[in-house]
Amino acid sequence: MQTTDLYEGLQRGVVDCTFAASSAAAWPSLQILAQRAATAKLFQSEELQEEWASTFGSGYAVNLDTWNSFPDEVKQIFVEASAQLLADITRATLEGYAEFAATTEESGVVFTDPTELNEVISKQQEEAAVAAMVENAPAGLNEPEALITTFRDHLKAWEDKASGMIDEETYQGMDRAEQIRQSFIDAPESIDWDAYVTEVTALLSE
């Protein structure tokens, strides 16, 4: 359903729920109808068991021959600019989540424990989505399973990098739903963004 139709769709019962980015979830009009919020874990791996929402950056591709034709100085400019752009996009995304979470008490929106939801999502991804990605891989991709494994390895590596940014004592005594809500509020200021850019620059330089 198109974003412009969400309000009427929820109001009339055409849809029971919606998946929305933080910018859409923060709409006061949408919050009148959608009084429950759950964070869906979109990327699965055996190691990543936490029920956190995901963020999306932007991907850019350059023809390999063109890239190799650039002097190292030019490549470095691209790498550093891309790292900074990704940091800016990620920070803006987290600020949107923080804004949404901070207004939920006033709007009456309640965060829910998404554990059972994510178990269903995980099963669907493994049994259908991932299998379909392998089965329908482009002809030029010889080892789609290896690509998925590499993606998950990168995901786990970044989870390890991010884990040190979380002060677990802050969330002790909270139930699961409140932990997630509070972590959304805290996230933009919990990250050392200069260190983030350094890490991304190193990754892109590999």
Task: Give the neighbour order of strands across the main sheet.
Answer: 1-2
Helix content percent band: 55-70%
The main sheet comes to: 2 strands, parallel
**N-end to C-end Cα span:** 40 Å
* Low-pLDDT stretches: 43-53
Q: How many beta-strand segments?
A: 2
Helix-strand pattern, N to C?
Answer: HHHEHHHEHHHH
**Overall mean confidence score, pLDDT:** 81
Q: What is the topology?
A:
Layout: H1 6-12, H2 22-25, H3 28-33, E1 36-37, H4 64-69, H5 72-102, H6 104-107, E2 110-111, H7 115-135, H8 144-163, H9 176-190, H10 193-205
Parallel strand pairs: 1-2
Helix pairs in contact: 5-9, 5-10
Labels describing this entry:
206 residues, 10 helices, mainly alpha, single chain, two-stranded parallel sheet
Give an overview in words.
By secondary structure, this protein is mainly α. The chain is 62% helix and 2% strand. The protein is built from ten helices and two strands, in the order H-H-H-E-H-H-H-E-H-H-H-H. The termini are far apart.
